[in-house]
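Researcher: Following up on the earlier apo prediction. This time include the ligand. It's zinc ion, with the SMILES given after the sequence.
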Amino acid sequence: MSHFIGIDVGGTKIMGVVVDPATGEIIERRKAPTPRSEPDKLPGAIADVVSELIGLQGAPVGIGVGVPGLVDHNGVLHYGPNVPGVRKLDIAGDLRAQFGIPVVAENDASCAALAEHRLGAARGTMHAVIVTQGTGIGGGLIVGGRLLRGANGFAGEPGHMMVDRSGPLCACGRHGCWEAVSSGTGLANLARQIVEEGGGERILELAGGEPAHIKGEHVSAAMAEGNDDAAEVLDRFAGWVAEGIASLITLLDPDVIVLGGGLTVINQHFIADVRERVMPKVMGGTHRPAVPIVPARLGAEAGAIGAAVNARDLLMGVG
Ligand SMILES: [Zn+2]
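Model: Understood. Below is the ligand-bound prediction.
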């Protein structure tokens, strides 16, 4: 038997897959809601998905788990802004004790990055930056063909690099993080700025007249109607996305930048727009090759597949 189980713990759901990590082929999949308001129940909810998958496909060689937050080298989740109330949770240790199978845990976006590098859009590169834009921004850095984990396991959080000190409040408690202007939440923040400036009538209307209720999807909906204010929000958004990517290129000199995540505004046209804005913001941008910016290939299951790939790599001594 050569299969692995990969689990992706998201803010709203826990996704589990049985996968052949060499090909990325998903043999079985199961989903369960994340007990967001009851953090004590999170380990049990993850274990239930694992149990179900073992019941369907038998015991795997190993289990990989991706969790949204700071996960150390021992698989302990220390903190995650999107899983409030969870502190020092020994994800890997608890599952290992329960199932008697090797378990590794890693940051969820790092898992998605690993999947894109081994099987998706960054395959065959040595240096890659994978940015996942959803409610927040996740990231994973591939350096020299390996996932950059850092001294404690906490490397690769580009969403919380500061880009604007006077910018909107971020989920992490600081102001002006890249995530606060370049994620789904960021899109809403930029729309609120337009409303504060006296515009954005249609966006506000779609949000029921309440600025606090504005979401990224209201901007998308107004955009689909050809609304000018929504186009202005998207323009500012693309500018901020490009700003962060340019800094990542200046810092890491990657072969490729991969953009993934569930934001509907991110399409081929948007990526082309960002691509045009990035190199002029990179240090010496006109004197170096333009870094390709490409869409992710593995979709919403990248995190779960990557968690399984991560387990295979670490347990087999590859990564
Ligand atoms: Zn932040």
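Model: Residues 160, 170, 172, 174, 177, 179 surround zinc ion (CB under 6 Å).
Researcher: Noted. I'll compare it with the apo version next.
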